[in-house]
Amino acid sequence: METFHTRGGRCVVTTDALEVKKSELHFTGRYWSRSKPRTLVALTVFVLLPLALLFADPSLFPIVLGLVVVGYGLRFPRDYRRVDRIPLEDVVVVERVGGVPLAVPRLAVWYHDGVMGGFRYVQFPPRWFGGDDDLERATAVLRERGLPVQS
């Protein structure tokens, strides 16, 4: 049984399945444990700065709320949490996604269970917090299990 970190927890690769498990610790807690200065900078830019702008001009509240709703709406259809256990024999191919420097590295696991197929994203922490190292470890683990991983 091999494990590797994902953005929201960890992924366990057993002899017969790939299981994505959500962590009890929020992913920001893991970022804090990896790099305290980077986490402080990120929190300042993405949380405190928007809050300061919001309190400086309360008329920005509908705009900020609208951006949050649109962001959630764009994320919701991806539905990358729909399948938490994929048998290894159902996996067709695993693709590495996110070659752009600011993108979050992830794997797209394509599977077909005989009735219907689909895919599931396995996201990793941002590159700034060591996501590339986790992606390389995941790629090595999946290749050891005999799964086709495309770059």
From the alpha-carbon coordinates, what is the Rg to the nearest angstrom?
A: 18 Å
Distance between the termini: 24 Å
Task: Give a quick account of the main beta sheet: strands, pairing sense, barrel closure.
Answer: 4 strands, antiparallel
Strand order of the largest sheet: 1-2-3-4
Count the beta strands: 8
Estimate the global geometry from the Cα principal axes: elongated
| Element-by-element helix/strand order | EEEHHHEEEEHE
Give the assembly state of these chains.
single chain
Could you list the spans in which at least 5 consecutive residues all have pLDDT below 50? Answer: none
The residue-averaged pLDDT reads 77
Number of helices: 4
In total, how many domains does the architecture comprise? 1
Structural classification: alpha+beta
Strand proportion, as a percent range, falls in 25-35%
Helicity level = 25-40%
